[in-house]
Amino acid sequence: MKFRTLLAAAFAAVSFVACTTPDGPEISTEGLNEVTYTTLTYDQEAKERICNPERGLYSQTSMRTASAMGESVVSASRYTGRTLHLTLFYLTDFIESDISADYLAAMQTTFDNLRKGGGKAIVRFAYKDDHSVLNKPWDASQELVARHIEQVTPILMKNADVIYTVQAGFIGVWGEWYYTSSFHMPVVTDAQYADRRKVVDGLLKALPKDRQVELRTPVFKMKMYGVGLEDTITVATAHNGSDLSRLAGHNDCYLASSNDTGTFDDKRGTGDWKFWDAETRYTIMGGETCGTSQYSKCENTLQRMAEQHWSYLNIGYHQGVISNWRSEGCFNEIQARLGYRLALKNAFFSPEATAGGEFRVVMNIANEGWAAPMNPRGVELVLVGGGKEYAFKIDSDPRFWFENTLTTLATTITLPSDLAAGEYELYLNLPDGYESLAKNPHYSIRLMNKDTWNEKKGYNLLTKINVQ
């Protein structure tokens, strides 16, 4: 089959989406019409549990004293297919003082162990986990909260590679922005919103511009930053490092009532609901359930998760909801579709490979999950053989490989002139965006295809080619 025909067939399958990144070039067929290309269709799906970074079910660990989370905890979670940890740093002992050096050192050890074990943190800070009146004060003073953010900033900056996202925290019991002694609740006036915004602004500054901060409700972003439905993030403004592009959401009373127990002010499909529907295509969304209801049935759950692009979920709570999902038959789909779910559909290759010559590759990758990957990530071809590796970067951004789309990647690489003749393996690698993790296979994305994953390298096999 001629390449022109193959390419037309590929585009017919993706006519409803943009190819590559939103601003990426269209694939040119100039000079290729008379060349016969090799085409491959990939089998799906891998049946074993797949452990991918920055998505899926998470486990929770609370650090209440200067005792770090162990590497074994992270490794054990990987064994069960989980790479995310809600790492909740309780600052109870410092509600009236600076954070101690020992506690800060234990925080660093926790991040070190996440890195060693192949995990990432959903970070939250809190002071209390009991909202009884006898347990007051529930949080530190506003001035001390600001001081504590200053203290943890160097640690957050240093360990951003193993931080998936940071939940705003600090305010209220569990850091969930409700039961609070130091910040007004309910929040009514502009001044009261401004007090909370100082916390968020502090956290935004405490992190690199490629990391997001999650707010407990959509109204907090709308009120604190003066935005509405007409101001939601778009392809043009997504992932640009601005504060607005970095403000995400987490819902910790998911599906418990008609408005998720106060998470939303408006009816479904309007107002703040619609705000999160739009924003979460470009920002991280996740959380936990908090009680069974008519709204937590499978049919509603699957629709809601798709509408608001869920990437992560607490496996530990609420067990009643999770048990119902299992009995109703949707738990496996939830587990599979949280976040991204990338799979090769087909690919086209130049029929011959010669040292110093050009080699053309066109791939179609489907995202069958509910969200795109949300943090920076590399895209490259890797040629392996003769004891050597050769990497070729592809100009594409997986953060724009949206849900329910087929992305076409096309590139022409020039093979090294000193490449020895023989058989080589050609891989697709999707490494972490941080250099510190880019060579660690635990942090590369595994595609959902059978018999393509190289576990030791963290690469996805495309094909084998013979170099002349």
List the helices and strands and how they pair.
Layout: H1 3-12, E1 38-41, E2 56-63, H2 71-79, E3 84-90, H3 101-117, E4 120-126, H4 142-158, E5 163-167, H5 190-205, E6 213-215, H6 218-224, E7 247-254, H7 271-279, E8 285-289, H8 298-307, E9 312-314, H9 319-328, H10 331-337, E10 342-349, E11 358-367, E12 380-385, E13 388-393, E14 405-414, E15 422-429, E16 453-454, E17 459-467
What does this structure look like?
- This protein is an alpha/beta fold.
- It folds into two domains: 172 residues, Immunoglobulin-like; 282 residues, Alpha-Beta Barrel (TIM Barrel).
- It is built from ten helices and 17 strands.
- The strands form three sheets. An eight-stranded parallel beta barrel has the order 2-3-4-5-6-7-8-9, surrounded by four helices. Strands 13-12-15-17-16 form a five-stranded antiparallel β-sheet, with no helix packed on it.
- Strand 16 and strand 17 form a beta hairpin.
- The N terminus is likely disordered.
Give structural attributes.
single chain; TIM Barrel; 17 strands; alpha/beta; globular; disordered N terminus; 8-stranded parallel beta barrel; 23% strand; 468 residues
What is the overall silhouette? globular
CATH class of the largest domain: Alpha Beta
Largest sheet: 8 strands, parallel, barrel
The name of the CATH architecture of the largest domain is Alpha-Beta Barrel
Low-confidence stretches: 1-34
Spatial ordering of strands, largest sheet = 2-3-4-5-6-7-8-9
Number of helices: 10
Overall tally of domains: 2
Q: Decide which structural class fits the backbone.
A: alpha/beta
Q: How confident overall, as mean pLDDT?
A: 92
CATH fold-level topology of the largest domain? TIM Barrel
Q: In what range is the share of β-strand residues?
A: 15-25%
Please provide the count of β strands: 17
Please state the CA-atom Rg, rounded to the nearest Å: 24 Å
N-C termini distance: 23 Å
What is the string of helix and strand elements? Answer: HEEHEHEHEHEHEHEHEHHEEEEEEEE
Helix content: 10-25%
